[in-house]
Amino acid sequence: MQLLTDRADAFRVGRAEFEAIRDRPSDPDRYELLDGEVLVTPAPSPVHQEVVSELTALLRPLVPPHWSVLSGPLDVELATGEGDTVLQPDLLIAHRGRLTATGHDGAPVLVVEILSPTTWQRDLGGKMAAYARAGVQHYWVVAPTTPSVTVYELGEEGTYVERHHAEGDQQVDVAAPVQVMLNPKRLTGD
Fold first, then answer.
1. Can you tell me the distance from the alpha carbon of 71 to that of 76, in angstroms, rounded to the nearest whole number?
2. pLDDT tens digits for 97-152?
3. Residue 112: which of 84, 71, 158, 77 has the closest Cα?
């Protein structure tokens, strides 16, 4: 039996086609380009936005002046070696010198994805692999429904290694890219 993914190359688009697709007026969806494949994501939920707000407030005072804490949607153009890739992390710590008029050029310092029923497979699959291929050193995943947070660092073999995991009211002390104490329950506003 042939699967849709068996024909994925037939549906790949270039950068110009991608820009034409997402430049439609009054479209509330978020569009990303992962190795030439267009990803469409609906608007985030309130709990998703709560986590983004809490993390932003927590991280902003900790970053040095040459970094910036930004939330999506913001285009992050990545060199993955697999095709055009423009992703929109839920939160990132960006190099100020790599910010452009439309987003961030290259690997950010940190990428955070907040899992949802419509994005979790991508966030832990194709997007995670793309971030690793592009050299994003720090990748955090927050699961609001558990609640939990998992902290990954890019390993020597170019894949992510889990450094920390906490659930509920557990706390985890993260040393890089900034020194911060994370508590999953507090991130979800509970």
1. 11
2. 999 998 999 999 999 999 988 888 888 888 999 999 999 999 999 999 999 999 99
3. 71
Q: Show Cβ contacts of residue 26 under 8 Å, excluding neighbours closer than 6 positions.
A: none
Q: What is the pLDDT of residues 57-66, one digit of tens each?
A: 999 999 999 9
For 25, counting Cβ atoms within 10 Å of its Cβ (0-12 exposed, 13-18 middle, 19+ buried), the class is exposed
Decide if 149 contacts 142 (C-beta within 8 A). yes
Predicted structure pTM score: 0.82
* HEC assignment per residue over 101-118: CCEEECCCCEEEEECCCC
d(CA 171, CA 186): 10
Over residues 27-40, the mean pLDDT reads 72
Strand order in the sheet with 67-71: 67-71, 91-95, 110-114, 138-143, 148-154, 160-167
Task: Please tell me the chain's helix, strand, coil percentages from 3-state DSSP, rounded to the nearest 5.
Answer: 30, 35, 35
Helix (H) or strand (E) holding 161: strand 160-167
Average pLDDT over residues 32-56: 83
